[in-house]
Design goal:
single chain, about 230 residues, alpha+beta, D-amino Acid Aminotransferase, Chain A, domain 1, six-stranded antiparallel sheet, 6 strands, about 40% helix, about 20% strand, globular
């Protein structure tokens, strides 16, 4: 406490945020929404050489590539943690009016209670190193990385189209993370509500549908190309 007071005294006009140290590895949970259903991707963010019980991960550790030996992102199996994620993650997203995608980070306090400190409103999606992308790989182990990444992109596009009352191409409806098999993800009904198909007036929706019909034959290849382009660049 004395050290905290000294920091505030030394930097009285700064935007310093002082947080209690939480002695655990980072817990990072991805959140995806498709219509009225949400999906949680519960993983831990572990760097063994900078164990969370005594360290805060620096930018240096975070920019290192995943190696599955020292730096890894395993699936969470602890029921107590999973139950807390199921209770809090959808509620946090709903309270902040986040739809489609976010990633929420936290740590356990000394009593085993999850304390959340970082809500990523628009997580990076660069293939294959981004934390959210890595989460998807972890939670869909039966598929190739390319299949999972394409499923992620399809999920985001599908939800965006639903918000405007526009029908998604068959391939996107057929192949997204919500149609892919995994026993590791958590699926729930969206808190408080629904994908708004009434975002636009009926006339505006009609105009969007007409516009969409004009380029529908080109839309599906373009979406898949997003995934392929990212993979090629990698």
């Amino acid at each position: 406490m004395a050290g905290t007071r000294q920091i505030l005294a030394d930097f009285p006009l700064s935007n310093v945020i002082i947080e209690e140290f939480l002695p655990s590895d980072d817990i990072t949970c991805g959140f995806l929404q498709l219509g009225e259903e949400v999906m949680l991707l519960p993983t831990a963010y572990i760097v063994k050489s900078a164990a969370g019980k005594t360290n805060i991960l620096s930018r240096k550790e975070r920019l290192r590539p995943w190696d599955e030996e020292d730096k890894m992102q395993p699936y969470i199996t602890d029921k107590g943690i999973l139950d807390q994620l199921k209770t809090h993650i959808p509620a946090i997203a709903a309270a902040l009016n986040i739809q489609s995608i976010t990633r929420i980070d936290g740590r356990l306090d000394k009593n085993g209670t999850l304390r959340f400190f970082d809500v990523n409103g628009l997580p990076a999606l660069c293939f294959p190193e981004a934390v959210m992308v890595k989460q998807c790989f972890t939670c869909f182990p039966e598929y190739s990385q390319v299949e999972v990444f394409e499923g992620l992109i399809h999920t985001l596009v599908h939800h965006a189209l639903l918000q405007y009352g526009v029908e998604a191409p068959e391939a996107i409806q057929r192949r997204n993370l919500f149609t892919m098999e995994s026993s590791l993800v958590i699926k729930e009904e969206a808190v408080g509500a629904a994908c708004s198909k009434e975002v636009l007036s009926s006339n505006e929706n009609d105009e969007h549908r007409k516009l969409y019909a004009a380029f529908k034959s080109h839309f599906e290849p373009a979406v898949s190309e997003v995934a392929r382009k990212a993979i090629r660049e990698y």
